[in-house]
Every structure is written in C-alpha cells, then in structure tokens.
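Lecture 7 notes: from sequence to structure.
We start with the chain below.
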Amino acid sequence: MKNIDRIRLWAIDNPVKTIVIIAACIRILVTILYQHIAIYPDSEDYITLANRLLNFDLSGYEGERSPGYPLLLSLAHNSFVITSIFQSIIGIITLVLTYKTLLMTGIRKESSLIITLLAACYLPILFFEFAILSETLTLFVIIIIFNLFFKIILKKRSKVNDYALLGLSSGYLVLIKPFYIFIPVLIVIFLLCSNLLIQRKFAAYISILILPAFIFLGWSYINKVNTGYFTSTTFYGFNLAQNCVSFAEHTSDKYAEIGHIYARYRDINTAIDKDIAMSIWEAYPELKEETGLSFPDLSKKLYDYSLTTISMNPIGYVKQVGISWLDFWKTSLYYEYDHIKVSSTAPMIKYVSLAERLIFQVIKILFVILIPYNISCYFRRKDLTPQFTISVVVLTASLLQALITYGTNSRFSFPFELLILISVVLNIKQYRMYLKEKS
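Predicted structure tokens for the same chain:
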C-alpha cells in the first residue's frame, strides 16, 4: 500500500485528530508569515470595556459594546497575543464542531472530513483569529447553537440538558452581540413547528428564551443606569443614521444642521472616491462640537434625526436597505497586507485569499438562489430540514441588518458562512439523490 493511501486511511479513521493537526499546522504557518495582530476601530471599544471588566467597574460606561467578547479579552488580561491564541484554539474547535455537524446532517464521513479541511484553509476565517474583533467567537457560538439544535431536531432528542445548553449558548451569543436576539426566538418557533416542545415545553421556554431575554434586558438596564437610555448599545442612532447617507441633507428644519454636516462629509468622501458608509463617524467630532452632546445623547438625537429623515425619504431608504442587503452577501477579509512579516509571501497570500473568496462568493450566491426552494420545501413537505432552518435564520439576519445599518454589512454574514456552506452541501447532496432516483 502506498504511503499516500495509508495517510488517507489514517485520516478517515481519525478525522478529529486530522482536523486538529491540519488546522494547527496552518495556524502556525500563518503566525510565522504574518506575525501581527490587527487592531481596528471597533477593537478599541472592546479593549476599553475589557479593562472595565478587569477592574469590576462599569460606572459611567457609555454602552457602546456588550460584554460578550470583552470577557474573552479580560480572560486574557487584555493581552492581544493570548487573545489570538485563544481565538486560534476556538477556531480549531469550531472546525471540529463543523465536521460533527456535517456528519449529523447525513454527509458521508470522508466527504465531511474533506469539506472541513477545505474550510480549515479558508484565509478569511484564519485572519479574523489574528484580529481583536468578535467574529471568531461569534462564529464559534453560532456553530455550537446549531450543532445542539440539529441534535434535537434530527435525532429527535428531548432532554432538558440539550435545551439548557442551547439556552446558555443563545444567551452568550446575545451577550456578544444583542443583534442576535432573534435567533433563540426563531429556534423556539422551529421547535414548536416540529412538535418537539410538547413534552418539555416549560423547561424549553425557560432555557431557550428566558436567559437570552434576561441578558438582553439586563444589559439594556445597565446602559439605562449609566447613560439614561434603555438600549443594548448606544451605537443605535449612529447605525441607523448610516442608512441615511444618500439623502442626509433632505431632512426637516429641526435637523437641518445635522443633515448639512453629514452631507458635507459624504460629499468629501465621494469626491476622493472613498467609501461613504462611515461618513457619519467621520462627522462625529464636528457634530459633537456643534451640539455639545455626549455620545449617548448625540446617538439619541441621531436616532430621532434618522426616523424623521427616513419618513421624509421612504424611497431613498428602501434603496439604501437594498444596497445594505446586497452587501451582506459579500465576503470579508480583515488583515493588514503591509504588516505581513515575511513580505515575499504577501502577494501569494493576497491571491490565494482572493481565489478563496471568489469561490465562497459563488457558494453564497447559490445559497441565496436556493433560499426560496428550501423554504417552499418545508411548506410542501412539512419537513424541518437543516437547509430550511439555516435559510430562514440567515435570511432574517440579512434583512434585519439591512434595516438598521449600512457599512461593513458583510461582517454580519461572516458568522453564518460555515452554516451557508453546510446548507449548500446538503442541497447538492439532495440534488444528486434526485438524479440517482430519476435514472
């Protein structure tokens, strides 16, 4: 037997070990070539909150971020190196869970292993592990949630522990990003549709819905104490204002000055061919000086401005929502090209990541095309498939994020990318079975 065949058989017989070894080797290679941990504007907010958590002091905190990801930073004592190591370990565990999820959904052992190993080589996932951003942790928790959920619906399990773990995971997901509060709600609806809540309805509701709701409302209350506003994040006004970027100046007399300043920064960015999505953030220092308001108060004023401006420009808002929705389906790559330590490998990394993103873009397009089919299959057959649940959750996320903000929308889809891959693989398997039966 050839050595290559022996390796292949060993890999199939030891899939988890294979995934861990390959994933670890790839991460070590990237560490050697990159030798950098990227800090982005969002990172500063996480670091600030992590410091507060380490000091057990939330007094006066202005509520920009929720504490899910900063808890990981504080566990690493705000060390970027230790955080990156944690994220690399989390990334490897995510791949193992992805493999187990593929198996659970009916994909053959060898195929599941190959798909997982290909995912292990996907550079956009890897580079998020070398950035102080929440995406790696969010991806991990979402995979945990769906792994637990598929255990319940596919294996027809109705154990209290399953629901409790599902509730804990959903609660922590909301702590990372309150935006995801819709996921436990959809999960309960799915379970109701599958009649799996009948035996343990009370325990299921308590564990899946109550904890995420308590976390969402509890953090909003902490922000109320500190800022005077009952909200999960004081970014809400700025986020909604981003959707007004194309018609910022077309507002009421009450908000004319805000609209004028906002539009000026948008026009400057347009003139230099720069992305206009972040114009409101560039206008922030001037808006703060002009209004004399604190960040939470200015966010509330921008929220009111946005509601008024949107009501006066409904067609413009719908167009902007459409742009945000389309941007959701793009792929993300967060790394700093100029900071690649072994500079001779930078072009190779650039082109490999570009090729991978193009391939995954095709997968995302296929997924979008298949969403109506997956949803219609449920209503025709009343079969709660993984493809249906993934389609509904991701479609809901795409619509909600488009309604509330514009800018870096593809980051909202990143935590769902492994689920999107699983869904498309299952659709391909379904199609192949159809062709086999037809022949």
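Points to note: Residues 244 and 296 are 19 Å apart (CA to CA). The two ends are 36 Å apart (CA to CA).
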